[in-house]
Amino acid sequence: MCGRTGVRRGRRKKDEGEPPDHALGRSRGGFSTKIHVVCDGTGVPLHVEVTGGQVSEAQAFPKVYDGAEASLTDENGEPIARPQKLASDEAYRSDAIDQFLLSRDVTPVIPSRSGQCRSRRPVAFDRDAYRRRNVVERLVGRLKEFRRVAIRYEKNAVHFKAMIMLAMIVICLRLLTG
User: Fold this and answer.
1) What is the CATH classification number for the domain harbouring 145?
2) How confident is the model over 18-33, as pLDDT tens digits?
3) In the chain, how many domains are there?
């Protein structure tokens, strides 16, 4: 008797994809995960989220910002610090994000994409404040020094995010001890 015993062969169908708890997805660069991180002006990480590679930055932004804002509150829920400006790269540039930040009295420092109309933005672009964005780029570089984060050994997004959090704790300890 020759027959299949339930072993699946070949590739998955296109409509199946990865389960949502894996935070893996196809993007132009292939199968990937995006790490969205917020830090303060000194490079201390405040909040991190992981999403699949196909998820747009505009979809992840409110959750990332609210998580960072929650980390800046005391035990009673009162804010201990409020950001005045938020700098990000052009992937986070959208009218919805501008309105989201302006409704919270935060000035967006996000450059327009090439080909986008710069004159209809609600705020002027602050080039000097944007130069300080290298702080978050250096934080991402430090995260990539940790092999488990750079290569992503963990399959579940919760485990991968836990590894990122451990790496962030080590980074914070290094910043504090000098």
Assistant:
1) 3.30.420
2) 666 677 766 666 678 8
3) 1
